[in-house]
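hiii so my PI (J.) wants the whole complex modelled not just the main chain, which honestly fair. so below is everything: four entries, each one labled with what it is. i double checked the lines twice but i was tired so who knows lol
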Amino acid sequence: MESTILLIPFILSFFILVMPTGMRYFYTLGVAVFLILVTSVPATEALLHPANAPRSFIAGGSLGSITFTVDSLTAFFILITNFTVLTGLLYSNGYLSSYRTTKTPAQFALHYFSYVWLHISMLCVLMLREGTAFLIAWELMAVSSFMLILFEAEKRTTLKTAVNYLIQMHVGLVLLIIGFLLVEAATGQFGFDGLQSYFAGYANAPLFFLFFAGFAVKAGFIPFHTWLPEAHPAAPSHVSGVMSGVMIKMGIFGVVRVLTFVQYDAYIVGIIIMILATLTGLYGIMMSIVQTDLKKLLAYSTIENVGIIGMGIGLGTIGIGSDNPALTILGFGGGLFHVLNHSLFKSLLFYCAGSVYKATHTRNIDLLGGLIHKMPRTASLFLFGSMAICALPPLNGFISEILIYYGLFAGMQVNSVFQTMSMLLTIMSLALIGGLALFGFSKAFGLAFLGLPRSEIHVDDNAVSHGMLFPKLLIASIILFTGLAPMFLLAPLLGMIGSQFHLDSGQVILPLIHVLSKISLTGVILILVVFAILILRRKVLKPEKVSHGPTWGCGYTAGNARQQYTATSFSANFAELANPVIAKQIEYTDIHEEEILPGGRTFEVKHEDVFNRTLNKITGYSMLVLKKIARLQTGNIQHYIMYAFIFILIIFVLLYLNVL
Amino acid sequence: MNVLLIIIFAITLIYLSMTERFPIYAGLIGFQGALLFVLSFIELHAITPVTLIFVALETLVFKVIIVPFLLFRIISKTGEARVHDKAMPGFYSLLFVTLGLLLSIVVSFSMNTSPANMIYFIVAFFAVYTGLFMIISHKKIFSHLVGFLVIENAVLLLSLAIGSEMPMLINIGILLDIFVSVLILGIFVMRLKQSAHELTMLKDD
Amino acid sequence: MNESGYILVGFFVISFLAGIVVGLVHNKPLARILTVAYVVIHIAFSAYGWLHLGETVLDYFTFDPLGVLLLSILSVLTITTVYHGFIYVKDEEPRVYAIYHAVLIALVAAMSGAYLANGMTTVWIFVEATTLAVAALIYHDRTPMALEATWKYVFVCSVGIALAYLGILFLGFTVHDARLLHLSFDNITEIAGMANPLYLKIAFVFVLVGYSTKMGLFPMHTVTVDAHTVSPPPISAFISTTLMNVGFLAIFRIYALFSATSILTFMNHVLILSGILSLLVSAGYMLKAKHNKRMLAYSSLENMGIVAIALGVGGIGYYAAILHIVLHSFTKAGLFYQMGQSYKVMGTYKLDESGNYMARYPAGATALLLGFLCITAIPPSGMFISELYLMKAMVGSGNYLLLAITALLLCFVLYALLTRVLHIVYSRPREKPLHELHKVNPWQSTSQYILFGMVIFICFAQPEPFRQLIESIIQALPK
Amino acid sequence: MGFLLAIVTALFFPGIILRVKSIASGRKGPGIMQPWKNILVLIRKESVFSTTTSYISRIAPAVYLSTVICALLLLPFPGMPSWLGFDGDFVLFAYLLALGKFLFILGALDTGSSFEGMGANREALYSMLAEPAFFILFGTLALLTGQTSMDQIFGSFQFSGHNSFIIGFIAVYLLVQIAMIENSRMPVDDPKTHLELTMIHEVMILDHSGFDLALIHVGTALKFAMYGLLIANFLIPVDAGQVLMNNEYLTINIGSGIKNYIGKEWMAVIQIGIYFFVQIIFAAMIGVLESFRARKKLVRNPQFIVTLSSIAVVAFILVLLITFKMIG
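here's the output for the full assembly
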């Protein structure tokens, strides 16, 4: 009975297409909530009792049946997904309101339909074990998100992005298919269950990295990330939030799921993952700093966070490889906890960026500024999110990062120079990433929201409705809760990891509790001190003592808003340092001496994704080759006959040479 | 006897590939028809008279009389009596055709068929080769038609080789003549003038 | 001559009469009524075929599973094609109208015959018939371009068919036995064993190349593409689905015949070679196709290439091939109908002039997107299953290089199709003045939705009888 | 304990620097407590806010100060573990300071002045570049001592063997330099410079006045004391007697010398004595440095800061060699 309930939303979703415009949103909401309830209940109990055997729901009828399996790992991701999808949906109503005039109802229907199906497919990806069904769900996820990206398809860039996105997802799918097929060829089982026996019998690393590549395309590890910074800005903001918050995490889920089966050479696998993740994190944040498009900046920071998650996972894998349960639990704990945290603050940030876009119709930081006066609530939430994503105490980002640090330091205390070195390097990179994130987000917030507007942007005051504010506040409160009382969420998570990797998480959790309690205590103290000082300040600083005036221009009185620091100039000195990594291009035409009265000049600094460029080079070249091949359709009938003639001749020759 | 006829058939093929005059094409096609007509009498002694009569008549009437007639008709209508623009000069085409002859000999021998059929195989292969080659090397659709006729004759020739065992194959093979008539019709519809490389509206290269 | 014999003969006689009457009496309503009646009869006929599965009739014909499967696909597509045909030739004068439908009936009859034929020669005869019939339909528009396309089609097809007949003759040489007058399939299987392999190889090459004109496979795929460009959309739907199935059936039959012999690997290699070349060419062309229908034509080439490769790889690849043929028929037919409507809406087949379909005709645009998903084997398309099986077969037989090449080329095909379809659906070219644009009744897209729906259904569930049917088709083939 | 001591130090730390500088430049100079007098004045003064600014620049100084205070709470004092210390507490330490810096930078950007933007930008860049050095240093120490909480690290860090001298020296050197950067003193920044274009810290507080400015000054003073405490932690032996027993090299250690005559109970006193000694030396050294050393070119600064990381790596390699018994 319970199983068939799972299928009901699938059918219900189709009525979104035929709903009248007034009803549509609420109907969609209803379907989503139904889905969330149906899945969250088993997920919660699975997460709370990780030791239990995974529960299976067999749904379907005479035509064939699907088996949904919910185990603790799945459950964790299900809950994250449900939450973010819900907030996204709540946010979408207000966000899309401005499109009511320009878009047809059909497009809205398609949008909400795809949204629900994105949700469904993600849940299926999590719950399905059988190969074919999993792959179908995996690609449905790509297709539905593809349709969501296409919401603003009238822009050419959106079209290009969408194409790029779908193609890369398809490549990832092919890799996964091959991986599963190899497993099947060896074990006869098509699906995750086959991995168990495969890894028992065959070389582990090659197959794992095949799967890893397949999942990495979704997760956005370099060099597979190139779709991500394009797709997130192109999509509507609630979609970007969901994509960046949970959809790419499906890739992480896949990697972890496969890792649970790996049995040999986990050590080297872990090392490689760690190196890759470190590079991903560094590259992501470096590119993020130099962006001027707010959402693109966030997209690159997503790559950075995927890198951090990857560090945790790599650490955990090293733990498996070196039979060090502490490492395993800390690594995976940190990584997966960061999955949760990132889903929270990244969606929050994307929603805020969406509100900014809706109010100002631009995402270019160089044009923004001073928004904190026009939209204070959004600004504060963005600041909150930035603090969380920079892993600043007392917020949740810090918790996951300190877990990883903790694990890294623990991993250093081993009798292997190589491992110690790599750990230290990772620590260093993590620290550097932290610093860079600080840099990037002080730029993002400081320049977009503070100071004065850098251009004549008209800010639509009532753009941000309460409906758009509520989900953000919800997320923010959870972020704060997670930051101050992490143990509530962390304990089940660690228990889950323990059960997934057949370890006793107890002896790791106990010291952790001590550490985390201390951290929370510090956080509380910090907050108290701040408030104390502020109260004192209020006492001391009587209103009559306060006066207002212009910013001190250091003696220069004619300063105006155009002379403020811009996003480009803020990141200029960093860009100088990091130029080899972030290809800097300046578009400027010099003044020739024959120009007596030089005309207007534009000066533009662009940073191109190196990987993207190489990828485009390769594909462009191969397409050129293919087009060269396709010269046969000359329209000349003699040639048509000639092909057959030559074909037969060749076959005969090969026949004569006994090649065929 | 039949070997002699087949040899002559082969020679006509070589001549076809060399010459550039349409009337000669028409004549040679008719002549080949005649050869096949005689050949069918020699080969098909085993089969039932009715079939024999049918085959023979069909060959005589269609291949020897109607087709050449129509071809001459076309020539007179178009008024162009020779190939103006071949894809390659006669010398090279002769080389290619000779090569084809050698090839077909090689293939036929490697098929180690019965000695009786050997000559048939060689010439049939050769005829197919020549037919295709004519189509490829000529630009006028008239020559294409002739090329197809040559291929069809090759089919008939080959079917004669086993005709005594299964005449049905011959009867069916004769159905190809429908195409011939359709093609000739097509040429008339196309007001006869166009040459193949004017028929290149449909292309994307 | 037993009962089913009467039925069969009756069917052909009816088709003949219907064709004659419709063709000679130039009367629209009559033509319409008769055509509809004929469609019903055809459905009934294929239903009869289901009831007498595996029965051999007048030992020239047989209701074997593959034949009946393709026959019923034909019946389904006949319904839609006739429906869209009515819309397409609505405004023609009675003569053209009548001839169109007469030839259509003839074509359907010829294809049905080809499906059910029990013998190389019989197939060959019907293939010839289909060529003639379809030629007339290609020429329907009477434009110079149509004329050119028709000429090319007929000429190349006749050469191809002649070559195919040569192949049959070589087959005849292997069967020095009057006992097996018509090269019936059930007879040949045992004889093929004792034949000289070289004969068989040469025969196979000739037959493959010859029928590649019909199946739209490399090397003789060229003319079908041209035919697509000019022929009416419903006819294009026929050419690239049921007619290609005829070619596939002919090749598949001879493949099945010889699969018992020593030349199996040879055939596989030739098929794979031809298939890869088809993929290569189609990928290249789709990257620069500027004509919507030609693009679809090349996609047919690509799919036939996949089928050929699937045959060549063998194993579960056989299953994949059959499944792919079935699904491709439905999908491609739907897409061509959709193209016809898009022409009505946008007044052009040129890619760079067409666009903004979503705003002009949402139902059709959605159908187009759906069809795109189906044809590119992206779930929820059933073709995903067939291509999955194909990959499975490749991995199973260790053809990793082949797998890599195929996957790569398919990605390029996907890219090409995706960009073009999105361009049609979303981009905003210079708008034509509204009076040039016809409105299309959204319900006309229903047929497409139904077709795609069937394809999607296969992705989620393959009904057991369907699976068993395909199994029974390929059971004779080596595992 | 350490907290209180730091507070005490902070009271006269800036004064000492000033005094040393004035003496070095041949002036008499203000009294030790002069900076605090200024602060008190500031607290009483009324303040001007730019119309551009928002509440960010209002709360920034408060947060800045409170992060420093919390960070201080994490620091141990030799022999007596810190109140809040735990495994990996130095991560929290670093990130707390980062939080303060973050809001400080935002406070600067809040004014919309391009000068302050410049300063904020440099501040962000330099502290970002300094992070790795700090973490490598503590990673090294953690590897050497096998501990991850600060009090245990310092507790078990013994001056045993000449290698540990090198490490200790490098560590102290690094800490001094990091302190300089974090407090934006010489050689990366010069508080006494007169051109806003070349300032870092000073330009960021241009628009802060009155109470807020006072908060910032307090914070800076505390920060100095904090780093002093950190350094002192190195140099003060947890238990001088222990030190004396298990190493024969250690003759210069002040603690051990006195240990022979007086009992354990004086230990704390001695330690505190050493602590103040170290602090004063530190402050004086800063003063001397600032008066005799020129600021680096701004373009050179990143290079200089990254050098610290490489020095830290050297220390790490040394520790590697020690821990894996490749050298004594």
